[in-house]
């Protein structure tokens, strides 16, 4: 009889293990810990390293909030944080970064964020002696948020550098994505 009991116990434990593994994917992504600052800081390094043209440190880089790819008129806490963090990393590397939310030369809508109008890009760049603008988009998937960061020339709107990355759509990131403006 003890033999049957141990067999049942082993079978029950195996079943519990398999059920746990089956739902483990969803639990892991929802609870995934990610060092957002470390991931984003590596993006700034990659953008500079892979740029098509060298970005002179005596010329400014304009920084904007990243926007939802499905609604380019909206940003979120996530989009503002990602843009600000990459800008901060560029400053740490010795680049002059201008916070465009403080400028009147951009198309701005209160509580929505700042967005570059391509026809004004040259004028804004010239007014601030800028070489490039940091822009980006993000797309929310089922388990991840996918982000594209770009450095764009203010002279001719060419993409000088681009970097894609993804982050697990955990509780923190999901919360930042729901705070839109």
Task: Spell out the blueprint of helices and strands.
Layout: H1 2-31, H2 36-49, E1 60-63, E2 67-68, H3 77-92, E3 97-99, E4 107-109, E5 113-115, H4 121-127, E6 130-140, E7 144-153, E8 159-168, H5 171-178
Parallel strand pairs: 1-3, 1-6, 2-6
Antiparallel strand pairs: 4-5, 6-7, 7-8
Helix pairs in contact: 2-3
Descriptive terms for the model:
181 residues; alpha/beta; Rossmann fold; 2 domains; six-stranded mixed sheet; two-stranded antiparallel sheet; 5 helices; 8 strands; 41% helix; FlgO_dom; FlgO domain-containing protein; signal
Mean pLDDT: 76
Q: Determine Rg (CA atoms, Å).
A: 22 Å
Low-confidence stretches: 9-27, 102-119
Say which CATH homologous superfamily of the largest domain is assigned.
ABC-type transport auxiliary lipoprotein component
Helix and strand sequence: HHEEHEEEHEEEH
| CATH topology descriptor of the largest domain | Rossmann fold
Tally the structural domains.
Answer: 2
| CATH architect. name of the largest domain | 3-Layer(aba) Sandwich
Number of strands: 8
| N-to-C CA distance | 66 Å
Structural class: alpha/beta
Shape: globular
> Count the helices. How many?
5
Please describe the biggest sheet, giving its number of strands, its sense, and whether it closes into a barrel: 6 strands, mixed
Beta-strand content estimate: 25-35%
Binned, the helix content reads 40-55%
Identify the CATH class of the largest domain. Answer: Alpha Beta
């Amino acid at each position: 009889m003890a033999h049957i009991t141990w067999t049942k116990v082993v079978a029950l434990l195996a079943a519990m293990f398999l059920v746990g593994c089956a739902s483990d994917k969803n639990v892991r992504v929802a609870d995934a810990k990610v060092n957002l600052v470390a991931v984003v800081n590596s993006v700034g390094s990659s953008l500079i390293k892979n740029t098509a043209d060298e970005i002179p440190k005596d010329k400014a880089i304009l920084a904007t909030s990243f926007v939802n790819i499905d609604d380019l008129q909206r940003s979120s806490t996530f989009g503002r944080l990602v843009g600000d963090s990459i800008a901060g990393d560029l400053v740490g590397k010795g680049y002059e970064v201008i916070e465009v939310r403080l400028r009147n030369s951009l198309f701005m809508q209160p509580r929505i964020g700042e967005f570059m109008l391509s026809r004004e890009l040259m004028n804004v760049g010239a007014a601030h002696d800028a070489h490039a603008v940091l822009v980006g988009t993000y797309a929310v998937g089922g388990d991840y948020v996918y982000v594209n960061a770009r450095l764009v020339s203010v002279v001719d709107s060419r993409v000088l550098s681009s970097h894609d990355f993804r982050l697990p759509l955990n509780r923190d990131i999901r919360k930042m994505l729901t705070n839109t403006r």
